[in-house]
Write a structure and sequence with these properties.
single chain; alpha+beta; Alpha-Beta Plaits; four-stranded antiparallel beta sheet; two-stranded antiparallel sheet; 3 helices; 29% strand; globular
Length: 101
Amino acid sequence: MWLFALFDLPVDTAETRRSYTKFRNALIKMGFSMLQYSVYARYFNSEESCEPYRKRIRQALPTEGQVRLLAVTDKQFGKMEVYSGKKQKEVEEPPPQLMLF
């Protein structure tokens, strides 16, 4: 499954820009990748495995702005259409799975 963090944060003052940067860096440190400006996503093996990350994101929330967390299955993610201008691009592949025995 994929967990999306979508956010709209103010950047009109030095303080709000710092808050935006701190939140964005927290997402990156948690392994999220930028899909578009203010849209980050990370792949998880299951819904249960993404729950601790939801909690960490809630702890990193800035005081202003809006953040949405959205979980979609790998199948739903694969149905996404991606365009760059009028050219269609391939959807990102999930990272390879590690198998530990």
